[in-house]
Amino acid sequence: MTVTSTPAHARPTTRPAQPARRSRLRRLRRNPLGTVATWAATTLLLLVILIPLVWLVLGSLKTQNEILNKPAFSLPDDWFNFQNYVDAVVDGNLGTYARNSIVAVFPSLFMTILFGVAAGFALEILVWKGRGAVLVSFLAGIMVPGQMILLPLFTIYFNLHLTGTLLPLVITYTAIGLPLTVFMMATFFRGVPREIFEAATLDGASTIRQFFSVGLPLVRNAIFTVALVQFFFIWNDLLIAMTFTSSDDLRTIQVGLLNFQGQFGQVEYGPTLAAVCLNVFATGAIYLFLNQRVMKGLTAGSVKG
Amino acid sequence: MKSVFGDRRAVILLLTPALLVYSLVMLVPVVWSLGYTFFEGNAINGFSFAGLDNFRELLSDPDAHAALWFTVRFALVLTVVQVAMGYLLSLLYVFVLRRASSLVRTLVFFPVILPTVAVSLLFQQLFEYAPRNGPVNSLLNVFGIHSVDWFGSSGSAFWVLIIMETWRSMGFYAVLLYAGLVDIPEEILESARLDGASGVRLVRHVVVPLSLPVLLSSVIFSINGTLKIFDSVVALTNGGPGSSTTPLTVYMFQTSFSYGEYGYGSTIALLLTMLCLVVTLFIFRTSRRDTTKA
């Protein structure tokens, strides 16, 4: 009796409960599954991004023997084995390459920003005939591939006997950075209300004074962003550096790294990974502190492709 | 007022440095390079007039055709893959992770800023086949699949290039497209949901049409960048095996500096520039026509 009474008793309660249960089921089916799928997708995504980098760091701490004879995913025997880093810097000449990069990158960065900001101001704030055409000619430069200017530049530098110095790099980087800098600075100046400059004019400021005391401070943040973007483009360049560095002690860090494996005769995994690691950390450190600004700047400069 | 903003001396003073450097180091060399297409020789041994020989050579050179074909194929495949991945990620950021997406966005963007040469050397080791298995082959072995000699055949080398470039750039396109998706008004999405659209249908019929402008500009940026691919190829495959992964950029470099043929190198560079120009103009045209229709 008790056995039959249970379904009989249950029947009336299950009926009104059914829609509620179904909707709960639907929510159950959607939400937890959706959440699990989201978590799985996000985790997979982060693993895909991070595992190569983690593997790189681990590899840079392993000896040649460990790398060749142990599984690819093994952990290093000695977590504080920095011999590879010493080899990379001392035997691999990484110090010289880094110094060359710094010597080539920062002067050109300074000039491209200074010239580019001034030109952006002249093209966007000042009013004169033909400024539209000049702006377009700067924009065209963004699209031109480096290969199109390489050979004439090589001829010029060769005939001026500059090929044994880092000057070709400084000059070329300054010029190549200009189109994007001018374009981005013109965009930023466009966002500044004209009234500010008009007020400064009423206060008796000359045009040059306007540029230095009103224009520059107003776009200070933008200048920093553009400088960051240009830094990454120039620092990571390979084409220009490969073309204009004739000898080993003029190589920038990217060219040096490209020829790194040849330096040791055979493939020395540890020092190569350590050198890659140092190169990754150098730009990674900047990203650690300035990531939001870097992301904003690079996407704003996406016209460069 | 007008006299101050139209101050001639100020314009000259502010514009001259940039214009001078830009003209001398970019505009003049572009024209100069055009001139080289009619010559033979190089900077060290001198030049001689060659008429249209370089263009004739370009038309009959199988290596140049192979490089052109590789460049086009690579640009098309990579553009589709990296913009699609970026779009999927941006959808994930906007509709699933929402506010929590900031950290993920920042992490996935990280490879974008890494030096290409460093990333290429890393991927060389990740996909290594001999003398030892890299992590990718080891992982395949775990699932019972035989190791693949990734850089040994042109097909697999092509895909390693695509995988590496996608790894490097998907975070960039995700952030670019994210900015476009965030701009879609919440009311439109809400009314579409009330009309019963959800999931894939919501994305296909509401989100994609509304983010079409930013999608198209991503495609333009991507094609423009991928047609000029140089660093990753040089550092990862160096055009190999054989010359099967050699794009126009690398072929131009080899022709000019390994064989000292500046005239022919300039002709290849011109082809590359025309390709970039035509593609950009073509996409601009079609995109503008589409928006006026809709």
Automatic annotation (TrEMBL), chain A:
Residues 1-20 have a biased composition (Low complexity). Residues 1-23 are annotated as: Disordered. One of its GO terms (biological process) is transmembrane transport. The keyword Kinase does not apply. Residues 98-290 form the ABC transmembrane type-1 domain. It is found in: Cell membrane. SUPFAM superfamilies: MetI-like. One of its GO terms (cellular component) is plasma membrane. It comes from the Bacteria. Keywords: Cell membrane, Membrane, Transmembrane, Transmembrane helix, Transport. The chain crosses the membrane at residues 33-58, 102-127, 134-158, 170-190, 211-235, 269-290. It holds the Pfam family BPD_transp_1. It is a multi-pass membrane protein. PROSITE patterns: ABC_TM1. The keyword DNA-binding does not apply. Belongs to the binding-protein-dependent transport system permease family. This is Carbohydrate ABC transporter membrane protein 2 (CUT1 family). It comes from Luteimicrobium subarcticum.
From TrEMBL, chain B:
It is found in: Cell membrane. PROSITE patterns: ABC_TM1 (PS50928). This is Carbohydrate ABC transporter membrane protein 1 (CUT1 family). The chain crosses the membrane at residues 12-32, 66-95, 107-127, 202-223, 262-284. It is a multi-pass membrane protein. It comes from the Bacteria. Belongs to the binding-protein-dependent transport system permease family. One of its GO terms (biological process) is transmembrane transport. GO terms for cellular component: plasma membrane. The keyword DNA repair does not apply. Keywords: Cell membrane, Membrane, Transmembrane, Transmembrane helix, Transport. It comes from Luteimicrobium subarcticum. InterPro entries: MetI-like, MetI-like_sf, UgpAE/MalFG_permease. Residues 68-283 form the ABC transmembrane type-1 domain.
